[in-house]
Amino acid sequence: DHCFMLNTFRKTEETLIALERLSKLPNIYAKLTSGTHGSARVYPHEDMPGPLRRVIEAFTPDRCVWGSNFPNALWSKGTSYAQNLSLFTEELGLSQPEQQAILGGTAERLWFS
Questions:
Q1: Which three-class secondary structure state does DSSP give residue 74?
Q2: What pTM does this model have?
Q3: 97-112: pLDDT as tens digits
Q4: What is the C-alpha separation between 14 and 89, in angstroms, rounded?
């Protein structure tokens, strides 16, 4: 849960390696919550897309679920809800099917199918 509460200024590589190992287990999903919270920078948080892409590549979009962390996300370095969402809709360069999976399709399949 909250696997993406990474801090880019603290043990990020160790955390990513551990997550990549976990991704080998087919019944483990990544909940990508607060993708900007651990950033050492303000919006647009240029230090977060790289680590986030690694998690998505390891788990694939079909095993990733976006979590808004609302309302706590609003307290993350002055980042708005829309800006947190834009990390996935614009800044990561995800295809439409990848966005659909991460932003709702995976959750629907996992919890409601």
A1: helix
A2: 0.88
A3: 999 999 999 999 999 9
A4: 27
Burial (0-12, 13-18, 19+ Cβ within 10 Å), 93: exposed
A 10 A CB-CB count for 42 gives 12
Residues 54, 76: Cα–Cα separation, whole Å: 22
The tokens describing 8, both together, are: 């880019």
List the structure tokens of 27: 């019944």
pLDDT at 85 over 60: yes
Task: Report residue 52 as tokens.
Answer: 């986030």
Portion of the chain with pLDDT greater than 90, in percent: 50
Per residue in 3-25, pLDDT (tens digit) is 656 665 567 888 899 999 999 99
Handedness of CA 31, 33, 38, 42 (dihedral sign): positive
3-state secondary structure of 82: helix
CA dist., res. 106 & res. 85, Å (int)? 16
